[in-house]
Task: structure prediction
Amino acid sequence: MNALMQTYGRYDLAFERGEGAYLFATDGRRFLDFASGIAVNALGHSHPHLVKALIEQGQKLWHTSNLYRIPGQERLAERLVAATFADKAFFANSGVEAVECGLKLIRKYHDDFGDPNRYRVIAFEGSFHGRTMTALAAAGNEKYSKGYAPAVDGFDHCAFGNLNEVRAKIGPETAAILIEPVQGEGGMRAAQIEFIQGLRKVCDEFGLLLMFDEVQCGVGRTGKFFAHEWAGVAPDILATAKGIGGGFPLGVCLASERVAAAFQPGSHGTTFGGNPLAMAIGNAVLDVLLEDGFLARVNKVAAHLDRRLDELLRRFPGAFESKRGMGLMRGLKCASGVTNTDLVDKLRGLGLLTVSAGDNVLRLLPPLIVTNAEVDSAIDMLAAAAAEAKAA
Result:
């Protein structure tokens, strides 16, 4: 027993270094990393450009607080605005902080410019928005909220993908709709393009704000900068994190000018968020991600992964029922009698790191710099684990 709070069921495995898509354990073993720190290490491990940015900024200045201008913060905000629907950005340290910022902005917007009695948010079954009390209430998932009653008020839940149910839930107190375009923890379920488009129309019809949680599915993970771009619609608010820092704690809440105008000095804040060190690394991530051809390469290797997953499904119907997700955010729904956590253990023993998800899904989240050859290696290990699971 160590001095850490027992909030994680950690594996007895520690790493000392990483390189690209690989991690190296303290005992010398090498692992192909298709977990990426739960979709965080978007550019793999120890990416040279990120390391350079970290060292250069670390030798100059780490933290000043937001009492002063931070040039790197202004630059990153301008680049994010130029590349997205947004007009304004607020930087935080994590995904849940970005989500909380968005939820506060929803209430402040309606209090300032709409109806102050509007505060309720429609969210979706199977969602995950983080671990704060408000984020737990937004998800409405007993797996995470048990023991933390009473739930924070202000959220109504609908079936993921059911537009008629969404319409039926709208009342005089409804302020916004919150959705992950691709659910991660909830089982790697991608919303249909028509559903995302329908939510935008509903929000416009009823005067609601549309907020996307792209903490996991954003920043190139699905082959576009943000997953909602596949539907050709724009939200009013978007929360993202994980990949935007390439492994460094960084979250951001993006918003349109109209909505962001509700925030004035003192409306919201953070001590550490947007510090010079985080901003240097965030800008370095964008240097790579926004390079000509980078996302095109992501889509090519994602198409290769998609084909190889189809082969795996044909070969091992007794192990896997179906594939889910988009781009390099993929899931394999395990067949009856096969447990995703058991497969995670088997794959780790073979040298492949993966993550479990809800609904008995095996989550595959390789770094965006993964190659076709590394995908093939992962498929070989998945086949070996599936053969063993089927035999058992």
The chain has a mean pLDDT of 96. The longest strand covers residues 320-326. The radius of gyration is 21 Å. Residues 126 and 186 are 5 Å apart (CA to CA).
